[in-house]
Specification:
Elements: H1 9-19, H2 22-36, H3 56-89, E1 100-104, H4 158-163, H5 165-176, E2 184-185, E3 189-193, E4 197-203, E5 214-218, E6 222-228, E7 234-241, E8 252-256, E9 260-266, H6 299-316, H7 322-335, E10 352-354, E11 359-363
Antiparallel strand pairs: 1-11, 2-3, 3-4, 4-9, 5-6, 6-7, 8-9, 10-11
Amino acid sequence: MAGMREQYDTALLGILQHEGQIAGFLDAMFGFLYRRTDFYRIMKQKTDRLGFPPGVAVKLLLNAYKQYEDLARKDEAEKENLKQMKEALEPTDTVPPAAVRTVEVPTSNQPIGEVSGRSPGSVDSGESTSASGSHETPQPMVTEDASRVENKPSDKNSEKKDQDPELTKQQEKFQANPASHNGAMRDNYSWSQTINDVDAQIKVPKYVTKGKDVKVVIEKKRLKVSYKLDTGQWLDIMNDVLSWDVMKEESMWSLVPGDHIHVNLEKKEERWWEALLVSETKINVRKIDASRPMSDLDDEAQAKIGEMMYNDRQKKLGLPTSDEKKVHNLLQDAWDADGSPFKGQPFDPSKVNMTPGGVVSINEDKP
């Protein structure tokens, strides 16, 4: 349901940015319900056609709050899971393995039976195992929290920028303001961004209260904003080249009377902008919240993260991961194949270990 309400984000964001804080935003919402609806009207008789029975309106509010509170708790849980998974995937010092010998698992036309004469603990060229002899499937490193995946760009001068206390302090100030989150505040405008779009707020005088007194031209690589003066002449307050291309058909603007013009630009490609305009001082994109919701990822990426989280839970419970299950099934199929040294014996997976590349290590100390 949360995704179905995103169509209202632009309008609601305009109200939130105008109010500047959650309390004012909520006051505007409930004030609207009070003035324009029967939300606060109590039904005193069953024949009343307006309002709600006593307590129902409050229950609606609590149910709506609980719904999104549950989603927030779920996001926090996923964040914690991925954090723990990242820590678990970091390499650790290991202990040398017990003596093993290595055999090749056969393909459909090749039998088991070739035993290599390598020293204990050695591996095939091109194959990677830990010093402990464990053969866990390599997992992609997750560089962010549970519900978000980072997309931070590189910068040759990033180290110098990171060490500049003035730039760091300035970006922290930008991050604290919803109007400049992941963006910047300039003399007559501010801008913020997500991985997909940019929101700009261009200041206008208090007497600019009607849309007909404003002109906004959004091109593929240019933004022009102007308003009508008291004299009837038009004044350009922004007319410059954008840092990157936008999809003008998907972009839009609105006027907050007497305050600012809100312009929403849909990015042509997913990337983090260092500036809204080419003439503008660049921000340090390594200091922004360069992350994106997991729901924005494609199905394949979401499935991969889901698999990693499943495997992490399995490890904590002492159960086999999805790849370990596949390896177990492969070993069981090859156990009694022609040429196998275990042919005719009951299947005992503790006698062997197998890497995802198909190299089987036989534990010599097993009876």
